[in-house]
Amino acid sequence: MEIFDYDNILLLPRKCRVESRAECDASVTLGQRSFRIPVVPANMKTVVNEDICVWMAQNGYFYVMHRFDLDNLQFVRDMKARGVYASISLGVKQPDYDTVDRLVAEGLAPEYITIDIAHGHADTVRKMIAYLKKHLPGSFVIAGNVATPEAVIDLENWGADATKVGIGPGKVCITKMKTGFGTGGWQLSALKWCARVATRPIIADGGIREHGDIAKSIRFGATLVMIGSMLAGLEESPGQTVEVDGKLFKEYYGSASDFNKGEYKHVEGKRILEPIKGKLVDTLREMEEDVQSAISYAGGTRLMDIRKVNYVVLGGKNSNEDLMM
Ligand SMILES: NC(=O)C1=CN([C@@H]2O[C@H](COP(=O)(O)OP(=O)(O)OC[C@H]3O[C@@H](n4cnc5c(N)ncnc54)[C@H](OP(=O)(O)O)[C@@H]3O)[C@@H](O)[C@H]2O)C=CC1
Ligand SMILES: Nc1nc2c(ncn2[C@@H]2O[C@H](COP(=O)(O)O)[C@@H](O)[C@H]2O)c(=O)[nH]1
Prior knowledge:
Layout: E1 9-11, E2 28-30, E3 33-35, E4 39-41, H1 50-58, H2 72-81, E5 87-90, H3 94-106, E6 112-116, H4 123-135, E7 140-146, H5 149-157, E8 162-165, H6 175-179, H7 187-195, E9 202-205, H8 212-219, E10 224-227, E11 241-244, E12 247-253, H9 258-261, E13 271-275, H10 280-297, E14 311-314, E15 322-324
Parallel strand pairs: 4-10, 5-6, 6-7, 7-8, 8-9, 9-10
Antiparallel strand pairs: 1-14, 2-3, 11-12, 12-13, 14-15
Helix pairs in contact: 3-4
Bound molecules: NADPH dihydro-nicotinamide-adenine-dinucleotide phosphate and the ligand Nc1nc2c(ncn2[C@@H]2O[C@H](COP(=O)(O)O)[C@@H](O)[C@H]2O)c(=O)[nH]1.
NADPH dihydro-nicotinamide-adenine-dinucleotide phosphate binds next to loops.
């Protein structure tokens, strides 16, 4: 297996088929809906809040609300009251089953449900998928996180409509250091490995550091990418604003950090400061433009045309040496 990551892959252009990048369609379909770009903000407390979710839904983007210190039921009610789709996260504990029961009792079916735990290749996830498929059969179920083809096959066989791949590549992740496991450092090739067996969409989660990494993820089999750090330092980002030496930052912490958990137990995440660098609307527009450009370099007109391109594996960061075609 080739081992590589975002910073040592480059995609190779094919003959251009458009006269303007405006002809390139960056949209993606997940379940019953299409979204403007193949990007979803990470379901983390310092990345999304209810206002951001509403705005994203109203403006044609996919979102997944986080599941921490949140009344999921009220969130779904609010989204339905505004006439937009609901996309929530669940864990696998008894309160999560209670949430499902209450949603069913109120006749509230979220359009998307993401089962979001650290080690998603687990019987607890199998049971939750089965419960959701029985009680909320209309909801599109995303399950994760996982890191291997075996896990993707199992989750799909258990009924997941999409899987989320990435254990440990996140910017505030310390899983690799704390446990010795994960896809940190080789997330892109782990994605490629998983995509070979996937028959349903994969969301590549973690490790995106540049807009070009979105196209690279699509090339290696992702349908969407989940992004945390690059969307945590925006003016609207929910993390606390912190001033250091006259410069403004937003705090960004891991969902498995003591900052999120409120205690130091099974900690696999840390807190960092992200420089504040603009507004969400501008960042998403720039991402769309960059994906449109990527499609044009791929010689295509649609997002999945990026899958057709060749690539080179570079020797290392800043290396000019092409090792593999
Ligand atoms: N993508 C990634 O690399 C990672 C992401 N995270 C994120 O942090 C958040 C909290 O995750 P998580 O702690 O799972 O959520 P929860 O605290 O809700 O735990 C979910 C369940 O999984 C169990 N569990 C957690 N980790 C493991 C493990 N390694 N092996 C076996 N069982 C486990 C927990 O039990 P118990 O706690 O008693 O073991 C609990 O029963 C999530 O949003 C998750 O996505 C966390 C770590 C890695
Ligand atoms: N190992 C951990 N991973 C975490 C934690 N909190 C979130 N995450 C994952 O990171 C991505 C975002 O990655 P980024 O590189 O875009 O910043 C997020 O979607 C989760 O999958 C954590 O505490 N530990």
